[in-house]
Design brief:
The chain is an alpha/beta fold. It is built from 15 helices and 15 strands. Bound molecules: flavin-adenine dinucleotide (FAD).
């Protein structure tokens, strides 16, 4: 079988690796527009259950990734000058995106996958002789764009502008900082992904964007402004840029996941908003599901592609709902921040997607749940006394 995978991100590389490992005779090529060793962004996270699933399928890759990860289960939620430290039951593993890609690239090359770099795909005519074309080319997928009607693509942009920076030190503990300024509301989200680097995502709402004059600033000026707003957290460290362009998030959903021998995985299939911190693992789990369908049905695409949808769609749909609730919460973050009490705010934040209700919160963030309930009960008792 001849397989062309467009896009050498986590989804494309992982699928290439799994398929080649399973079917060494297949001719598998990954076509990536970026040069070898270059990428956007800084560190990304992979949750515990996803790592377990990956380990069960390809322990070699899972172990190589785990060896490079920075594990953490604490997060400070800051609302202006108050904060709550949340300790999660499960540890997230953060890894430099470039390192993650490096592990996957090596794992592909070791098995004989052909990786083409600095080759941008603008149309699919060059791949006419291939049995399968995998669109793993991210949120602006060209594979999907060749026939949006066939995939039933819907897309729209959110209104909150954001940019993805780095910081050249491990900022601990991880934090989400929600801050009022005289011009509006800003959010800074940072997490360490190695001993000397952290990711820092900055965001504001649409009203703040114009009220603060951010819309008139250049990207370097915006970086300086964000450094000033979060100066107490950055403690003199400048933000590091890597294609750190301020933009709004594009939501992409497809009614149909394949068309003929073209199939979508990862962000090309459904863009995952960064506020749920799961885009990389969802992309890699799509690759796993497509691989599982091949493992079940051999090379019979007529069975494989519907089976991929059957395996994966229910989970993706659940996450789709959670993602939508999460980004809508951020789109209305000004209102969420207006209550003023950091404990209620943190509770609201932790339960925003609907995936975690109070019952689940007890297991998900046990000490926060216990402290929050104690405070609530004490408040209720003192209200009853008055
Ligand atoms: C600010 C921000 C923070 C994030 N934080 C996290 C996080 O903490 N944890 C997490 O899990 N996820 C995070 N994500 C999401 C995560 O980066 C994506 O969900 C994930 O990378 C999707 O993987 P993918 O392989 O589907 O797509 P991508 O990683 O986008 O890879 C697609 C690849 O295709 C290539 N490509 C695109 N078009 C073409 C073309 N025409 N020809 C050739 N090559 C092409 C691109 O260069 C790219 O290498 C974040 C995203 C953003 C924007």
């Amino acid at each position: 079988m001849k397989i062309a995978i467009i896009g050498g991100g986590p989804a494309g590389l992982y699928f290439a690796r799994l398929m080649k490992r399973h079917q060494p005779a297949h001719q598998i090529e990954v076509i990536e527009q970026n040069p070898f060793g270059a990428t956007y962004g800084f560190g990304v996270t992979l949750g515990g259950p996803a790592r377990e699933r990956m380990k069960a399928t390809d322990p070699e890759v899972a172990d190589a990734l785990a060896a490079l990860m920075h594990f953490n289960n604490k997060q400070r939620i800051c609302l202006d000058d108050e904060d709550v430290l949340v300790e999660y039951a499960s540890y997230g593993g953060a890894i430099e995106r470039l390192k993650l890609l490096g592990v996957l690239q090596k794992a592909c090359l070791d098995l004989g996958v052909v990786l083409h770099h600095q080759r941008r795909v603008d149309g699919l005519s060059a791949f006419a002789g291939y049995d399968l074309i995998v669109g793993a080319d991210g949120p602006n997928s060209v594979v999907r764009g060749t026939d949006p009607a066939a995939f039933g693509t819907h897309s729209y942009s959110l209104t909150n502008p954001f940019a993805w920076y780095g910081v050249a030190k491990a900022m601990k503990p991880n934090a989400l900082v929600f801050r009022h300024t005289k011009d509006g509301v800003f959010v800074g989200h940072y997490y360490a992904y190695k001993s000397d680097m952290s990711t820092f995502v900055a965001e504001c709402d649409a009203k703040t964007w114009t009220q603060s004059g951010f819309d008139k600033l250049s990207d370097p000026e915006r970086k300086l402004a964000i450094e000033a707003i979060f100066a107490d957290h950055l403690q003199g460290e400048p933000l590091v840029e890597n294609k750190s362009i301020w933009r709004t998030f594009k939501v992409v959903v497809n009614d149909r996941w394949f068309s003929g021998n073209h199939v979508l995985i990862g962000d090309a299939l459904r863009s995952a908003h960064f506020s749920i911190g799961s885009g990389t693992r969802l992309a890699m789990e799509d690759a796993l599901a497509l691989f599982d369908a091949f493992a079940e049905h051999g090379d019979d695409l007529a069975k494989v592609l519907p089976r991929y949808v059957e395996i994966r769609k229910p989970i993706r749909d659940l996450f789709g709902v959670a993602t939508e609730r999460s980004f809508n919460w951020y789109e209305n973050v000004r209102q969420a921040m207006s209550g003023g009490d950091v404990w209620d705010f943190t509770h609201d934040f932790l339960t925003r997607t609907g995936r975690v209700d109070d019952k689940r919160l007890k297991d998900y963030a046990p000490s926060f749940y216990a402290d929050y309930m104690r405070r609530k009960n004490a408040d209720a008792r003192s209200a009853a006394v008055q």
